[in-house]
Amino acid sequence: RDCGAATPRLPADGGGNGSGWLELSSRPPAPAVLNPWDVMLCVSGTAIACENALVVAIICYSPALRTPMFVLVGSLATADLLAGLGLILNFVFQYVIRSETVSLLTVGFLVASFAASVSSLLAITVDRYLSLYNALTYYSEKTVLCIHTMLAGAWGISLCLGLLPVLGWNCLHDHAACSVVRPLTKSNVTLLSASFFLIFLIMLHLYIEICKIVCRHAHQIALQQHFLTASHYVATKKGVSTLAIILGTFGASWLPFAIYCVVGDPDYPSVYTYATLLPATYNSMINPIIYAYRNQEIQRSMWVLFCGCFQAKVSFRSQSPSDV
To answer: Of 45, 56, 61, 187, whose CB count within 10 A is highest?
Structure first.
């Protein structure tokens, strides 16, 4: 196969018998053969965009959802919404409008969107930790400034990561430097994977600290009441289980793809890249369920948005960031 005749795209050729590159062939004469993996990525992107667009609309529609906690949830939903749109655009530009420049922009857009999503997850984890560790001063202006600074940094770094392949850090003219995700270079995906591993370790450490705080609070309550009530035990167990599910879902979604980007070779069958990339996109599909739709404030806003009224008999409890 003549690698020099191909131009970049995110999807790969064939279903798994060819090279492991996710690439775009932009030869105008022959129509592209529809790849089922690309269809699944497009369907995943559509579901992601619809889910997160609803979350963004609810947060923008409801004046009550203006706290730092929901600003973070809104940032996550916005990043995932952009990622979903990027997957759809990638499919369109691969099979409908073939352009090397546009395809490169799409890849950069996807990198920036998914990087912002992962960074927003880290910011939410930090916010949860601060809400428990500094419970008395959490609602101060200092916390608001800290959260806005985190978000500005997260989006700024994500934008820079997305611009790297667009500004020249790609393998369009050096195919030997290509990674399993063409047109990203091996050094580029190594940087992205290393950043993910660092974020995952920080989140793991913070969630362990959160579990310690939760268990310590339960122990203090037990000492004050001379025993740990069943309700407190259930609440503590549920809280720890929820944290484990959140971190487990995040790790199961992204770790296989991040590891494969480091150890994979461009000559490996492309099915390996697809099989690890597709679950990574599912994380953006699961995020709104974990961080938004489970929140009772958002449930109430959805009720008002779609029903136009709120029945008083349906009770909702205001939640703190540690409950989200």
So the answer is: 45
